[in-house]
Specification:
This protein is α+β, with helices and mostly antiparallel strands and 728 residues long. It has 28 helices and 21 strands. The chain is globular, with a radius of gyration of 26 Å. It starts with a helix and ends with a strand. The structure holds arginine and glutamic acid.
């Protein structure tokens, strides 16, 4: 018991300094599960993983010369932003079938949906290859290799360089290396900073651009529980969608074309349909986006008390307005489903994060750690010279940073969230591009056509009016755009609409069609454009410049602070923060205690969906077909031994945004589930992992199989899979 207690928090590290011997013994005895590790550097973890039950070797997981698990894991990217992975997924058949989360594919489903073909509501199943829906603006990437290139990138860099010189030199070294590797391999090379700019690793990707929608459940299943259950346990969401990778006749990446054929995958995952048990080993791989595990106490305090509350307040208000409009009008429902989901997601997460940080006393724990560091620094003159003033300077600069970042965040959560103001901003950006007038013209017209397909003026009017009020109430006087100063806050949104030609699709498009170079005088007189222009100037310059300057200082402090932590706690394994690069996390299936006297078990079942459905809550509706399958207990060979139908499960892996769709593996590397969320109490794990309450939520792969087979009747897809462990 004592062992677990120590292992559970970072007090573990503190004790280590003073009670070195005891800590050494304890660290051998317990496993912490914290961490998003690098598959190409698994030597330090593989022993522990095998002790926890893994049957594979490090080479089975990552090896650039032989077939291994990494080759079946993909990152999902927007084609115009190919190194920032918004979700993860895995290849599950020899014909390039890929599985990810429903919420990861929702924008694609939406693009193909209309009132006539409402795939969001009804789901979609391609019954043959010809029915698969392509022309999407997302791609998937495979990591081909990763390597430590710190030495190359830090060539010529010394501690005496100014921060600016240092950054310039590093950036130039990075571009050179990326270009060299991309040119010589024909692949996409990208260098990322690790350990807060102390190390640099190269990732080489192959990116496939023709990804087609194969199947998705109705949103009542794919997002069952909606925002009521989002970030929460018990959970019953069938959060999966199937895509297929298409390639040219040589099996190479190619832009969307009807000549492309399904990708022939030499590596794909086997699926294990055996019933799981609490304590089973689990690992997952994918592309976690961002964590900040090594911040000082005062930075955590700012997030907890300043940034999180700001986001929660404004988003909560927008969500209420949008949902009211959605409920009143089915076309608004289709247009705003995905928009409201992304607003609500962060809104709820930051509430959980703040609650967790407070209840686990993270700021105090970080302060305790800083005291230990200060003691360590005081031990030698060399340390004093390197780090003696670091925390004081860092904290002093952080006060300025919070002021500037708060101003930025306020604008980005208010004026920048108004859709009508976004029209002006986007046009402004395109007009500022260094491209021909005709290219500008066609980009603007394409943008407007695209924008208005998903736009509802009445909804946006009410939201914008609220957002303007929030901005005026909270912004510093020097950050208020002159146009806004002259307006009456109660009528500002109405005036913008009635006086601007940009909120009406026909007049906006007509204006930009009229001549190649738009009449800038007329544009600058348009109050909406003018306000968007002023806001952008304030955001980029008035706020952006001082913020950029202070951020450079903060980043440099954090780089040194990270280095200090790695030196001071040299005996503990420290993983680098998530940065949208390829990672592995591991743990076991396990429940938790969310509060006193309550224990959550780690498995949910279809019966739970039916219980929730009876509650008559807006987010708990179920398609009749699923009710019938439940009534008939028609679960096929995918059910539990007691006859129930599994849906979701909990594990102790450390995950974050971007890990959605990550394949969850058993001890043999077979697919057992898809990561899609974390529990609310544990969303603090982006800043501090706490083994008591941090859990990731997976969708049981058996629910996926059941759904494809029994609900969608897409047997041909089941035939495509390699399934072991079926109960019949
Ligand atoms: N919370 C999960 C994530 O961060 C799932 C989001 C989609 N689901 C939802 N109900 N909004 O992305
Ligand atoms: N749903 C998240 C995603 O889209 C994963 C949940 C998390 O942040 O852990 O990546």
């Amino acid at each position: 018991m004592v062992v677990l207690l120590f292992c559970r928090t970072k007090t573990f590290f503190m004790k280590r300094l003073t009670i070195t011997f005891l800590a050494a013994v304890l660290s051998l005895a317990g496993h912490c599960n914290e961490g998003m590790w690098l598959p190409f550097l698994l030597e330090n973890n593989i022993g522990e993983m095998r002790e926890m039950g893994l049957h594979l070797t490090a080479d089975d997981i990552y090896n650039i010369n032989q077939a291994c698990l990494k080759d079946a894991v993909v990152g999902f990217v927007d084609l115009d932003n190919p190194f920032s992975h918004f979700c993860s997924g895995s290849v599950i058949s020899a014909q390039g079938l890929v599985i990810t989360n429903h919420h990861c594919g929702l924008s694609v489903v939406q693009q193909h949906s209309s009132l006539q073909n409402d795939y969001i509501t009804n789901g979609f199943w391609a019954m043959s290859l010809a029915d698969e829906l392509g022309g999407n603006d997302i791609g998937v990437c495979f990591l081909r290799r990763m390597e430590d290139v710190t030495e190359t990138i830090l060539q010529g860099v010394s501690d005496t360089l100014s921060v600016k010189r240092r950054n310039d030199l590093i950036n130039s070294n990075i571009s050179q290396l990326e270009k060299k590797v991309s040119d010589s391999t024909g692949l996409k090379a990208h260098v990322d900073a690790f350990y807060c700019d102390n190390e640099y690793y190269l990732s080489v990707y192959e990116i496939f651009e023709d990804i087609r929608l194969v199947g998705t459940p109705p949103i009542e299943v794919g997002k069952f529980g909606g925002d009521t259950d989002n970030w929460a346990w018990p959970r019953h969401t069938g959060d999966f969608t199937l895509f297929r990778i298409y390639a040219d006749s040589q099996n190479q990446p190619a832009a969307y074309s009807d000549k492309n054929v399904p990708y022939r995958a030499s590596n794909y995952l086997k699926i294990n349909a055996k019933q799981k048990a609490e304590g089973d080993f689990v690992m997952l791989m994918g592309y976690p986006g961002t964590t900040n595990e090594y911040l000082p106490s005062f930075a955590v305090a700012a997030r907890q008390d300043v940034f999180d509350p700001l986001v929660v307040n404004v988003r909560g208000k927008s969500i209420n307005i949008i949902k009211e409009h959605m409920r009143a009008d089915q076309s608004v429902m289709i247009k705003y489903t995905s928009k409201v989901a992304s607003l609500a997601n962060a809104w709820k997460k930051y509430q959980g994060e703040r609650t967790g940080l407070i209840s686990k006393r993270v700021v105090e724990k970080k302060r305790g750690r800083e005291q230990l560091m200060n003691k360590w620094i005081a031990e030698t003159d060399e340390r004093k010279a390197q780090y003696g003033n670091l925390l004081d300077y860092y904290e002093a600069d952080y006060i300025e940073y919070v002021k500037q970042e708060k101003a930025r965040l306020l604008m980005s959560e208010t004026l920048y969230k108004s859709e009508m103001l976004a029209i002006g901003r986007k046009i402004r950006t395109i007009l500022n591009l260094n491209i021909s007038d005709s290219a500008k013209q066609s980009q603007i017209i394409d943008y407007l056509n695209d924008f208005f397909t998903d736009y509802d003026l009445a909804t946006d009017r009410t939201v914008t009016s609220m957002l303007i009020g929030e901005y005026l109430d909270n912004a510093l006087p020097e950050h208020i755009p002159p146009t806004l100063k002259k307006m009456n806050r109660a009528t500002a949104a109405d005036v913008l609409i009635s006086k601007s030609f940009l909120t009406d699709s026909a007049s906006a498009v007509a204006f930009f069609k009229k001549s190649l170079a738009p009449d800038t005088k007329k544009l600058m007189k348009d109050p909406l454009y003018k306000l968007a222009d002023e806001a952008a100037l304030i955001y980029n310059i008035t706020i952006g410049n001082p913020l950029g300057q202070i951020e450079r200082k903060i980043d440099n402090h954090q780089r040194l602070f990270m280095r200090l932590q790695r030196q001071c706690f040299a005996n503990s394994r420290i993983f680098p923060d998530a940065n949208s690069t390829f990672r592995i996390a591991y743990g076991q299936i396990g429940g938790y205690r969310p509060s006193d006297a309550v224990r959550y078990t780690p498995f949910s079942t279809l019966g739970g969906i039916m219980e929730k459905c009876d509650l008559d809550v807006y987010d708990y509706t179920v398609p009749d077909r699923l009710k019938q399958l439940y009534a008939d207990s028609d679960f096929g060979p995918y059910r539990n031994a007691d006859g129930s139908m599994p849906v979701c499960f909990l594990s102790t892996c450390h995950t974050t945004g971007g890990n959605s769709g990550s394949p969850m593996f058993d001890a043999d590397g077979n697919l057992i589930g898809l990561n899609f969320d974390r529990v609310w109490e544990g969303t603090m794990s982006d800043l501090q992992f706490d083994a008591d309450i941090c859990r990731n939520i997976g969708l049981d792969i058996r629910f996926v199989l059941f759904f494809i087979d029994k609900y969608a009747g897409a047997r041909h897809l089941i035939e495509e899979l390699d399934i072991v462990g079926l109960s019949e």
